[in-house]
């Protein structure tokens, strides 16, 4: 009886040992699977991160190359400028990555398009667990591809107040009503309240937008970085009756849409000829400067009733003052370059003025028409003025009873001007970007008409009096004062096409 019982115990022990051995085998197999799963999860995440890192580098490089091309760099220089955005520690810190910059792109829907740049990045990617699996080695390479370029786009219509330090950036005072058939953007970082009446706190008690109790702002859309004075929200209306209040506070700042508008030079239409300081008053016409009087003042009347007309030609002026008389502007670019004692570079407050197909460029005393220096480097700085070069600037005063139409190569003849002058189509007034000079548009005439885009990036625009303005205003800050209605009704056909950079792949 004992022997069978011993055999039974032995068989049970053997089975237990076999099961223990199988458990060890299965645990070993499961351990490999678990490590593989950990490898897939951890190393998969690392590979995804490496891929994203490489893609960030490719995106940055493509954008940098497109930006360099937009500024006029050669294909080689643009590629050289773009590569560090992948490899350098200051950017994406992928020193071991291989970078290929192709201008134009070599593949995809933008292949062969010269204003686009392609970045191809191959970067090493390390793994830590997954290589324990049979047949899988350590590390690898991830590939990223990006394409960026620039295209001409139509400027958004309306009003843009770009200066973040202006408080307020937009002000409606008195009993003025500002009507904008378009969008209004205010980059001011002032405080106030949002569209719900909740406080907007950006470290200041000054508001970004102010609409006094007796004033009103009517627009299709109002985007403000900061807020609006609390009692002004109710005075903001949508231009479409019955639509919600157009105010949107706490918004991101709007970029300068004309940042890459070229500086006027001889190469794109400036006549490098000093034309003096013409003045037209009710008492007569006078020209001060090296000009031929016979070519500038003509007699258009009969011998019994002579009428003298001052004819101004494109060129460089210390100042232009018109308070009376008759003045005709020949189509072209009028550069306003002040002397040290100049208060107003342009003063048009009376008289009969024919000004069609023109653009005023209000620059500083150190402007060079041949090169555009120092103005042509202003776009490199995002800081508000004063400018670092200490240029003298002059202010502008215009009566809103005047009719002025912008430069437009489709409607007017510009003689021997280079074809590049068409870059300024739709522009009526262009102020050097780093200038903080003030422009005043005043009067109270329903007959006045100013068309075209008005660009004074860090300048102050003050409108006082009734008038209609068929164009967009891109300025540092803006105020509307008085007791009348001022209507900004942009004409999309007259707004300039400007280059903007896009990441398309």
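^ structure tokens above, recovered residues below v
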């Amino acid at each position: 009886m004992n022997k069978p019982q011993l055999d039974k115990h032995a068989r049970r022990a053997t089975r237990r040992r076999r099961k223990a051995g199988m458990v060890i085998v299965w645990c070993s197999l499961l351990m490999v699977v678990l490590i593989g799963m950990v490898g897939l999860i951890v190393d998969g995440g690392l590979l995804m991160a490496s891929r994203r890192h490489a893609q960030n580098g490719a995106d940055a490089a493509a954008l940098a190359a497109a930006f360099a091309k937009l500024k006029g760099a050669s294909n080689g220089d643009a590629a050289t400028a773009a590569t560090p955005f992948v490899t350098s520690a200051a950017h994406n810190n992928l020193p071991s990555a291989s970078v290929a910059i192709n201008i134009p792109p070599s593949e995809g829907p933008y292949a062969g398009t010269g204003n686009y740049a392609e970045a191809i990045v191959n970067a090493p990617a390390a793994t830590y667990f997954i290589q324990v699996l049979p047949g899988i080695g350590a590390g690898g390479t991830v590939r990223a591809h990006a394409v960026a370029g620039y295209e001409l786009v139509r400027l958004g219509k309306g009003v843009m107040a770009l200066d973040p330090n202006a408080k307020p950036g937009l002000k409606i005072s008195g009993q003025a009503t500002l009507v904008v058939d378009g969008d209004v953007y205010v980059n001011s970082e002032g405080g106030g309240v949002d569209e719900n009446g909740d406080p907007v706190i950006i470290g200041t008690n000054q508001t970004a937008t102010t609409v006094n109790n007796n004033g009103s702002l009517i627009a299709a859309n109002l985007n403000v970085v900061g807020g609006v004075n609390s009692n002004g929200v109710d005075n903001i209306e949508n231009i479409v009756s019955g639509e919600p209040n157009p105010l949107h506070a706490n918004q991101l700042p709007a970029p300068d849409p004309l940042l890459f508008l070229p500086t006027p030079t001889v190469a794109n239409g400036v006549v490098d000829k000093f034309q003096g300081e013409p003045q037209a008053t009710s008492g007569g016409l006078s020209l001060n400067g090296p000009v031929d009087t016979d070519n500038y003042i003509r007699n258009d009347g009969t011998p019994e009733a002579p009428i003298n007309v001052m004819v101004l030609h494109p060129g460089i002026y210390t100042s232009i003052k018109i308070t009376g008389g008759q003045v005709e502007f020949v189509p072209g670019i009028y550069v306003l370059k002040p002397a040290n004692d100049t208060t107003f570079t342009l003063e048009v407050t009376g008289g009969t003025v024919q000004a069609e197909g023109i653009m005023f460029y209000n620059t500083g005393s150190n402007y060079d028409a041949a090169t555009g220096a120092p103005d042509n480097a202003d776009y490199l700085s995002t800081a508000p003025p004063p400018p670092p070069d200490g240029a003298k600037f002059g202010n502008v005063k215009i009566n809103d009873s005047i009719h002025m139409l912008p430069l437009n190569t489709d409607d007017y003849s510009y003689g021997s001007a280079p074809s590049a002058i068409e870059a300024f189509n739709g522009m009526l007034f262009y102020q050097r970007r780093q200038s903080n000079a003030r422009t005043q548009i005043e009067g109270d005439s329903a007959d006045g008409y100013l068309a075209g885009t008005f660009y004074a990036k860090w300048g102050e625009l003050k409108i006082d009096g009734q008038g209609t303005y068929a164009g967009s205003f891109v300025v540092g800050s803006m105020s509307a004062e008085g007791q009348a209605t001022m209507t900004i009704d942009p004409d999309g056909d007259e707004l300039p096409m400007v280059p903007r950079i896009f990441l398309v792949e």
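Residues 262-465 form one domain.
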